[in-house]
Design goal:
The complex is a heterodimer of chains A (264) and B (350). Chain A is mostly helical. Chain A has 12 helices and 2 strands. In chain B, helix 2 packs across helix 3 and helix 3 packs across helix 4.
Chain lengths: 264, 350
């Protein structure tokens, strides 16, 4: 009789995970769904068509979001690879303090931080620009990229690089051919996290970017706020695709040893 | 061809902890020198200083007459085989061995030829495409050696390269390594804590003790004439019995004649210890004379480790181990003889 409680628990669990997803899918194909009906009274792909129409805003927002996420990722990598290398290998005196410093943006409530950033950006004319949004996303993403990349570099045994130096490689060549490729899976994982965070980010984009920069989450918000549940559902489903894809990639590449070194 | 290595008054400290105290050592071109000592004696630090991985606090290092104290690791002409092998997990055997050649700007054809040669020399044929994770311990060790040898280094540095090998594999590898070093004429500095390994491999052994050189010399010389109790103990003379020294004569049991010590090696008058190896002492027949030291004791225990019996003999309050051809009955009184060349006498405080 054990299958019964087990089955029930599994069913409940599945409902929690997939229930909202099913709801999203239903909304995305509901052409009319009025209270008190449990299910839509009319199904169709009219709203999908509307969203994917050339003059529809969804695709434009999607490309903009991907563009911002890409820039954010590149910016974070440009900072985090050298910084993480130094933190992991260069015996810095304030190592722990520096690592904590990058956690600070997470330590305070989001709203006041972003409102202040928006105020500061206003005086630099950065509000409503892609660069402004990228900068604020990067400040947030650096936490992941620095912490994970530091762990990835720390997981590479010093002797591996010395072995290359030893037979004639200069410091940079040894880094490029040995340390970097060995840390690459961890760095790639951090890049994926940064990319996804940027793609989903709402609060900062809202204060710094809106209304000129309309990322996909902002579009989703205004669609949902305007009662257009179909467009909101389809937007949410589109946002889901890169997340699931990248999670699969991360799961394959991020090794347990690297995760174990986070914060060491 | 190898080049000479000269270490002049080298001091190294980690933070405030001194590790090497003004060590001076010279290694001739083509010589095989073993740095021997227990862990923490500074032998690996000395090797890593020569490789350029550790910055010395004082002193100089010269290779082939050139001062390399401040040179980066890649400009020293020294190639190291690491204890962990430090093989690159993402690089195949062939790529690993060819790495140093590629850096030197060799074209692919030449690299392939040389790598093929190294694979043959190290009996790794057919394994060129494997990754380190797909190799056995012995194969990894040979790849690490191949990577170092491929660049024709003037100096080969070996950091306990055999400590991760099975005892049976190690035996063969020792002789191969010695042969290889001699045929290439390379200068080799080998760090080990294994006495037998050092003796088999090296032209000269340098014994380190707490960051200083305790003694150096040929294996035979060190074996026959250890300069201190520490060296004697490290070279297998683990038995220790008290004697009295008087005018260069050592006295053991009161009823036995004293032993005249070698002039210059005798400790000052007073209490001293004699150190000897279990396999060099023997049990004497009643009345049998011996040029050496004789003690009277009782058999405490006999054990059979294989080939011969090992008896534990109680003399006064001390127990010593002696190899004997036959089992000795427990409790039997015996005369224990230590032949003069095997008896190493040092002052009791040393």
């Amino acid at each position: 009789m054990w299958w019964l409680p087990r089955g029930l628990l599994l069913g409940l669990f599945a409902f929690f995970v997939f229930g909202p997803l099913v709801n999203l899918v239903l909304w995305s194909v509901a052409e009319s769904w009025f209270w008190p009906n449990r299910l839509p009274s009319q199904y169709g792909f009219r709203f999908w068509e509307r969203v994917f129409r050339p003059e529809g805003q969804a695709m434009e927002s999607l490309w903009l979001s991907i563009w911002i996420a890409t820039l954010t990722t590149l910016l974070c990598l440009a900072v985090s690879v050298p910084a993480a290398w130094a933190l992991a290998k260069a015996n810095l005196r304030w190592r722990a303090a520096i690592l904590l410093l990058f956690l600070l943006p997470q330590a305070f409530p989001n709203l006041p931080v972003y409102i202040n950033i928006a105020r500061i950006f206003f005086s630099f004319n950065l509000n409503g620009t892609v660069i402004g949004v990228v900068l604020v996303h990067a400040a947030h993403g650096l936490v992941y990229s620095i912490w994970i990349a530091t762990a990835a570099f720390a997981a590479v045994d010093d002797d591996l690089e010395l072995a290359a130096r030893n037979i004639g490689a200069g410091a940079f060549t040894a880094f490029r051919t040995i340390t970097l490729p060995l840390a690459a899976p961890g760095i790639a994982a951090s890049a994926v996290f940064v990319f996804l965070e940027s793609l989903d980010e709402f609060t900062a984009s809202y204060f710094v970017g809106a209304p000129e920069v309309r990322t996909l989450p902002l579009l989703l918000f205004s669609a949902a706020a305007g009662g257009n549940m179909q467009v909101a559902a389809i937007t949410a489903l589109i946002l889901l695709v890169p997340s699931v894809l990248f999670m699969l990639i991360v799961e394959r590449f991020l090794r347990a040893e690297v995760l174990a070194k986070v914060g060491k | 061809m190898g080049s000479s290595v000269e270490v002049v008054e080298l001091s190294v400290a980690f933070g405030r902890t001194p590790v090497l105290h003004r060590i001076s050592l010279s290694v001739a071109a083509g010589e095989f020198v073993a740095l021997l000592g227990p862990s923490g004696c500074g032998k690996t630090t000395l090797l890593r200083s020569i490789a350029g991985f550790v910055a010395p606090a004082g002193g100089r290092i010269l290779a082939g007459g050139q001062d390399i104290t401040q040179a980066p690791p890649e400009r020293r002409g020294a190639a190291m085989v690491f204890q962990s092998y430090a093989l690159w997990p993402h690089m195949s055997v062939a790529k690993t061995i060819g790495y140093g050649l590629k850096l030197r700007g060799w074209d692919r054809v030449r690299i392939d030829v040389k790598v093929g040669e190294m694979l043959r020399l190290l009996r790794l044929e057919g394994l060129g495409d494997r990754l380190p994770a797909q190799l056995s311990g012995g194969q990894r060790q040979r790849v690490a050696l191949g990577r170092a040898l491929a660049v024709d280094p003037a100096i080969l540095l070996l950091d306990e390269p055999m400590s991760n090998l099975d005892a049976r594999v190690r035996e063969g590898v020792r002789h191969e390594l010695r042969e290889l070093q001699q045929s290439l004429g390379i200068t080799a500095i080998h760090v080990t804590h294994d006495r037998e390994e050092a003796m088999i491999l090296a032209d000269r052994i340098v014994i380190l003790h707490e960051g200083r050189i305790a003694q150096q010399g040929t294996p035979e010389d060190l074996w026959a004439r250890p300069a201190s109790a520490y060296v004697a103990d490290f070279l297998g003379a683990t038995n220790c019995l008290p004697v009295r020294v008087h005018d260069e004569m050592a006295e053991a049991a009161p009823a036995e004649p004293p032993l005249r010590l070698e002039p210059g090696r005798a400790p000052p008058n007073g209490p001293a210890n004699v150190r000897f190896r279990p396999e060099e002492a023997r049990v004497l027949a009643p009345g049998e004379p011996l040029d050496g030291l004789v003690f009277h004791g009782v058999v405490a225990l006999s054990a059979y480790p294989g080939g011969r019996w090992r008896a534990s003999i109680r003399i006064g309050r001390d127990d010593v181990l002696v190899d004997v051809p036959d089992r000795l009955p427990e409790g039997a009184p015996v005369r224990l003889g230590i032949p003069a060349p095997a008896a190493h006498v040092f002052a009791a405080t040393a």
